[in-house]
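Quick one, T. Sequence first:
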Amino acid sequence: MPRFEAGRPVSVEMTKWGGRRHWQYDGHFLGEDTFGDWVGFPAGTHNHRPGLEFHSRVDTVMLVPARGAFLAGFHAPGIWCTLYTDITTPAEWDDDVLRAVDLDLDIVTRSDGTTTIDDEEEFEEHQLLYGYPPEIITMAEESAERVYDDVVARRPPYDGTAAGWLERLAALGR
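Structure tokens:
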């Protein structure tokens, strides 16, 4: 049985280590599959964090993994990247609010198909500045490596699986 009915409004509230506010945005629960829960964010979604805000230019679907420490955002064509994966603590649902702590590292696939691990310097700085515990450092590094390897190898769900979820988002007409 799905967590919510398709189309139900949900919110994402990300923080940085120590509870510092980070990205917040609203979307719609789309459904679930063997990989986890899928949440959709139509073009025009307001994204905001302290010091920065914007409205998304394209539809995006996010995989909230059933097992894993990341949130993977798959973007419709039309912006600089097709995949932006935040390495996080394991995400948790608090009723209709999804919460996770962003741990700096990102796996990014650009529109030209190149995939990189981004923000490694920020991750190293924040380990010292904010006192990441050793187990959090290890979890983030292992998660980044695993996601990067899966993306480059095009293993599911990085094999086009998200296209069907982008179609579901478009069908909601939001």
